[in-house]
Amino acid sequence: MKDNFIEIKNPDQKIYRIFRIKRFKQLMRSKKLVLVNPKKWDDPFENFFLKEGTIDPVSGQTVPLENLAAAWYGQCWTFEKESDALWRIYSPPKDGLRVSTTIKKLFSCIWDEKDKYRSLKYFIGKVSYTSRSEIEKIMENTSFENISFGGHNDKFAGLLCIKRKEFSHEKEIRLLVSDLDPQKGKNGCYRIPFDYQNILEDVCLDPRLSVDAYSALKNDFEKMGCKLPITQSELYKVSFKPIRLQMSV
Fold first, then answer.
1. Are 101 and 15 in contact, with CB atoms under 8 Å apart?
2. Burial of 106 by CB count in 10 Å (0-12 exposed, 13-18 middle, 19+ buried)?
3. What's the average model confidence in pLDDT over 118-130?
4. What is the pLDDT of residue 215?
5. Secondary structure (DSSP) of the chain
6. Is residue 178 within 8 Å of 190, Cβ to Cβ?
7. Which of 60, 78, 141, 146 shows a CA-CA span of 20 to 30 A to 52?
8. Which of the pair, 101 or 184, is modelled with greater confidence?
9. What is the pLDDT of residue 147?
10. How far from chain centre, in Å, is Cα 12?
11. Are strands 202-205 and 230-232 parallel, antiparallel or unpaired?
12. What is the largest CA-CA distance in the chain?
């Protein structure tokens, strides 16, 4: 399993993800975690190594790699426990929550010991951040043959863990699957069984929710059977004492 960790030193390190409340309720009901094809990610530099195809050395023509690109799925988590930016980016209408787990626990939900191709299919990797020019250099100096040599898929997964430095505040870690079976990735979504009660460690609701909204949502989750600790982020809570009229002598 550890051979499929990319730039990860401590598999017990905690990681986090912000879900929209609606999506998390769907996860609770279905007990399925949904990974998506990288083409659904916003950054146009995502999946850069497959977007442009490869050049046939004989004909000089560009050979599309759409089938290979379509076989990859991922989900982004973060090492950052709390930040104003993450709440505003991933919970813009103030309707989000943050969950936590560990790298090892998250990876265990996709790692299938019975799958003889498991070493080629399942990965988790720390994202590295670099400049646009460095990404362009990678594209210029890397061939499809070099990446695919040995047929191990780890180099493909590694390239999916590269982003531009403008996104470094996200401190991402990515859960990745490569599966050529089109039935398992309908409409660019790959669903895997997810026992959230045992994999996740807690639920933390958006810090911008009112006290009443927080209490109502906490009650909703408990009625749905959630036994995880449920709290609200204290990012914006303040408890300053009144300022003194004058300094004591």
1. yes
2. buried
3. 94
4. 97
5. -GGGEES-S-TT-EEEEEEEHHHHHHHHHH-EEEEE-GGGSS-TTTTHHHHT-EE-TTT-PEEP-HHHHHTEEEEEEES----HHHHHHH-TTS-EEEEEEEHHHHHHTT--TT-TTHHHHEEEEE-EEE-HHHHHHHHHH--HHHHHGGG--HHHHHHTTEEEGGGGGG-EEEEEEE---GGGSGGGEEEEE--HHHH--EEEE-TTS-HHHHHHHHHHHHHTT--S-EEE--TT---PPPPPSS---
6. no
7. 78
8. 101
9. 67
10. 17
11. parallel
12. 89
- How far apart CA 154 and CA 163 sit, in angstroms, is 17
116-148 residues labelled b (16+ CB within 10 A) or e (exposed): eeeebbbbbbbbebeeeeebeeeeeeeebeebe
Question: First-to-last CA distance in the chain?
Answer: 66
- The pTM of the full predicted model, rounded to 2 decimals, is 0.87
What's the pLDDT score for residue 153?
80
- For 38-84, write each residue's pLDDT tens digit: 887 777 666 665 555 444 444 444 444 566 778 899 999 999 999 99
